[in-house]
Amino acid sequence: GAADSKTGILSVWIRLDGGDASILRIIGASATLGGGATTKWRSSRLNANKFIVTGDNAAGSTILEIISTTSYTAAATWLHLLASWDLASAAAHMYVNDSSDLAGGSTLTNDSLDYTTADWGVGANPDGTSKMNGCLAELYFAPGQYVDLSVEGNRRKFISSTGKPVHL
To answer: What distance in Å separates the CA atoms of residue 118 and residue 98, rounded to the nearest whole number?
Structure first.
């Protein structure tokens, strides 16, 4: 049922146990089975310790890139990363622990993201590189869907007003 689309939602609880100043992959998609150098879609904690969501079109051009303003390093606390995008209307949102954390200069090109790639990995790239040094929980990834996260009621579908997980 996978289909290329201009929209998507990502919600995940993350505990960073180490790996500061290195890339920690939350989700990665590769154009070839078993991984490979061509990643088409990725959500990560960058070596600059910021969260990023990046996606390419079928031609391999980056058409989605949203990044957090704040740096996040290893700690014994859980973080909630919530993002949504609609490239047709140049809309993107990123929230960490229910606070808006979207840096300026996002790439939001009106084109379809290549969600029909050959291989996907959770907690690492499909080839096992860029492994997550920490824990992931309550992962929700919905390509082809969009919700305006600037509306507080929409965020409550993913995180409670007290900052706790909710039943999806």
So the answer is: 33
Dihedral of alpha carbons 27, 30, 35, 36, sign: negative
Torsion sign across C-alpha atoms 124, 29, 56, 14:
negative
pLDDT tens profile 101-129: 999 999 999 999 999 988 999 999 988 89
DSSP 3-state of 154:
helix
Q: How far apart are CA 100 and CA 35, in angstroms?
A: 32
Which of 30, 143, 39, 155 is CA-nearest to residue 85? 143
Locate tokens 């690492």: which residue? 124
- Please report, in angstroms and rounded to a whole number, the separation of the first and last CA atoms in the chain: 20
* Distance, CA of 57 to CA of 70 (rounded, Å): 27
CB-based burial label for 72 (10 Å; 0-12, 13-18, 19+): buried
Q: Model confidence over 14-64: pLDDT tens digits?
A: 999 999 999 999 999 987 776 666 678 999 999 999 999 999 999 999 999
Do the Cβ atoms of 11 and 155 come closer than 8 Å?
no
DSSP structure class, residue 127: T
Q: Is 126 left (phi over 0), alpha (psi -120 to 50) or beta?
A: alpha
Q: Tell the residue number behind the tokens 């706790």, with chain if given.
A: 164
